[in-house]
Design a protein that fits this description.
The structure is a homodimer of 480-residue chains. The first copy, chain A, is of the alpha/beta class and 480 residues long. Chain A has 15 helices and 17 strands. In chain A, helix 3 links the parallel strand 6 and strand 7 (137-139).
Chain lengths: 480, 480
């Protein structure tokens, strides 16, 4: 991963580092997770260090904070405004924001061009004209805005407080929220997550350019529907992909999806073939599901470099092993039989019945802690293997009782092998089928992340992610 | 689904209805979930009504049951034997079983032809020769055997006790166990689940023929690696698929998977193209993952008939909706825009901002119970819609508190719409990200099943399953 030492801050750096935030249109009567009150709670939970100003002429206090009747009524300077007012109140909000000298407005407010209504699209353009004149930058409208853990900004309650190095540039707030939720349980941590909706002012080109320069960002993920400003976008996208892994989930890869995107963010999604050509040219990876986007974030966060594509699959279950081999091969990985000498070394302490030492390795070592380290060590050391995929799970019979202890021991042994043999090990989970098994799975994933292991929600998804990463690395190495 | 009234019992019917079970090689020192003790616990938990005889010369009591030194030492007749002894003890077990007049032996015992060792393959053939001579039928070796809830047989602890109408014919015990675990949390219930491993005697042909005739079986799922006895298998497979939905997961669809299958059950998996041709000819469905097999079981258990392929997708989230439309279209479903009149009927009570009433329908009704029934009713009634896919989930912000109540109310409203409008509604879950959300999701799925709704673990998987079912139904209708 590249870590740049920037000569000067990026011109958009202040957007991500406001010193104060006002939330306009906040009401205690809002639905709990959405609207102004949701932003207020999220930002407070994220530990924003500067002043937070709720604004609502009908309240004097919101959640213990003094509530102001308007932006100009606030004594101190206001860098960043979150607008949760309805579209009809936006003109007056613009008056106040200009008067107050606000630098950035995030419009959670929706109901503009994405509705297909001409008047509302006109209102949107008028907002842009006035903002540009006043030097105010806009995020949105129709979006969730920023999650920047290092700055204490967040748009949903419960996002991780610890910062990391994965960025997400997203046209959808729901998908951005799910991306954070789904990947954070695998230990992924974030530099900047941007939900930018209709992209009236700041758009994908700006955010790619920023993330390309941002020293805190090592991996750039994106959810895009349509992209505006053709050549500028292409330039920024290529710049980013030349410096860092870029992984894109493109909404509207089918005609039905394209129609849906037009209702969602007013995007005119182009032909997926054109976007694919751009990805190939730039060296970016396109994935087809939110899950796959999360998996790539895991892979690139935890592995310093993509390994080759020859995998040793190791874990319990004969039929599981057959399907794992199919999944790996279908994804583009090789699953070579281990060399005779490797097989023999395992046979020396592995009973013949109900096992296989060829690859996939299906041995009781997956269940018997005493043999785990030895087995994985022998497998990882084989000369025709680039990395090990270990699969495990919780919730089979009464085994749950000592699951916590076994999990810690498993991770410790795998970490030893990884460090001694010097080859990557990634971990695929068998899906849990009870709340208790889910809890154990989450704890295990969290411990794996602490030990530096990428985990994936299934063998199939682990194979798909590792195959894409291996392919990306091979292409990258061929260029250099 | 067909319900046959059989003129006479199938010749293999007694295999699934033993009056007594002996477990040979049971030991209290076994690992808790595997080996003899695992079978003993599973069968007792399944409520087997006849006598259960643990057999082990070194014990007098196992788990409170009298333990016998050998099969002949048991006073009463023994219909069914589970062999958990090592391969080297099998010759002597055969002596005893023949002396005792046993009818069926399930060999959990592994270490035969699947090892690739000629001597062990020879031992396997000798077992078959002696069993055939004595009129004993064999299940396995190298397998988990039978789960027949109606008879009180099971091979893993915690399987559902309530019987149902889905059969599984599986060459893998691990995959059979996961199939039951993964699909039972969606309310799928089983008639016969067979894990038959190396298929030394009873094989896939026998089980397909049996399930085709079995009045308790309405849907036949299968996990196959290689198939033995060519023409007999083809005949039984076609007979089954002509009468009931048949869905097959074929292990060894790649070269790597085929190699793994040869280590697992000694199967010579053929070219996947040949198997595909057979499926097309027979009218069976081939899927490529265990998850997809479970999803098809859900779809066929809960829906009386495959609907057409025009779906209305309904739930919260703009980006979620775009990806859902992509998933649906990629799977082969149509996502037509709703007629103008339908859109207008929704617009009458749906705010314009942040919503879409076209299809996918992304409205706050997904969150606001008062508008849910009305919205779904209008959507389902549209003339260009065959079924509704409703998506929901648990674990977004503080909304968990009243989740249970909301879940019940949601199901009640959806059931009313389904019954009044007369179109199917299926439910896709957003994946849970905490143990608490997992618990709520499991409870919700269980309530959905009680109300007759198929649930799926993701929108993507719901779309894939429904598209396959629609295609199967269209082909079936075209034949009749």
């Amino acid at each position: 991963m590249t870590t740049e030492s920037p000569a000067a801050a990026h011109p958009l750096d202040y957007v991500f580092h406001p010193r104060s935030v006002a939330i306009v249109g906040v009401s205690s009567k809002d639905m709990d997770a959405f609207g102004g009150i949701g932003f207020l709670r999220a930002i407070r939970a994220a530990g924003f260090p500067g002043p937070i100003y709720p604004v609502n002429p009908k309240a004097t206090e919101v959640e213990g904070l003094r509530c102001y009747p308007s932006l100009p009524a606030i004594e101190g300077p206001v860098d960043y405004v979150i607008s949760s007012v309805p579209a009809r109140a936006v003109a007056s909000l613009m008056d106040d924001a200009i008067a107050k000298g606000v630098k950035v407005i995030h419009f959670f407010t929706a109901g503009f061009s994405e509705t297909g209504d001409e008047d509302l699209a006109g209102l949107e353009q008028e907002v842009l004209r006035r903002a540009t004149e006043a030097g105010i930058r806009l995020i949105g409208p129709n979006c969730m805005g920023l999650y920047v853990p290092r700055t204490g900004l967040a748009f949903m309650y419960g996002f991780p407080v610890t910062p990391g190095h994965v960025a997400l540039i997203s046209q959808s707030g729901a998908n951005a929220g799910e991306f954070v939720n789904f990947s954070s349980i695998h230990g992924v941590r974030f530099s900047k997550v941007v939900s930018f909706g209709n992209a009236l002012d700041l758009n994908a080109a700006d955010f790619f350019d920023y993330c390309a320069d941002d020293p805190d960002t090592h991996v750039i993920c994106a959810y895009l529907e349509g992209v505006k400003g053709g050549p500028r976008f292409v330039e920024a996208f290529k710049k980013a992909a030349a410096r860092k892994p870029v992984i894109v989930l493109k909404g509207g890869r089918t005609e039905a999806g394209t129609r849906a995107a037009s209702s969602h963010t007013g995007s005119l999604a182009g032909e997926i073939q054109i976007f694919d050509a751009l990805c190939r040219q730039a060296g970016a990876i396109r994935v087809e599901s939110l899950g796959a986007l999360c998996d790539m974030a895991s892979a690139f966060q935890f592995l310093a470099k993509g390994p080759g594509n020859r995998v040793c699959i190791l874990g319990g279950g004969g039929g599981t092993s057959v399907l794992a081999a199919d999944d790996a091969a279908a994804a583009g990985l090789e699953v070579p039989w281990l060399p005779e000498s490797t097989q023999q070394a395992m046979r020396d302490f592995t009973p013949v019945a109900g096992t296989s030492v060829r690859n996939p390795v299906d041995v009781m070592a997956a269940w018997d802690m005493k043999q785990l380290k030895r087995t994985v060590e022998i497998a990882a050391s084989a000369e025709n293997i680039d990395f090990v995929l270990y699969h495990t799970g919780f919730g089979w019979g009464p085994r749950l009782t000592d699951a916590g202890e076994r999990a810690k021991e498993t991770i410790a042994q795998l970490a030893q092998v990884r460090d001694e043999v010097g080859k990557p090990i990634v971990i695929a989970m068998r899906p849990p089928i009870s709340a208790e098994a889910m809890g154990l799975t989450l704890d295990f994933q969290s411990e794996c992340a602490k030990a530096g292991f990428a985990t994936f929600p299934s063998i199939e998804r682990a194979c798909a992610a590792m195959a894409l990463m291996a392919k990306w690395q091979a292409a990258r190495d061929a260029r250099v």
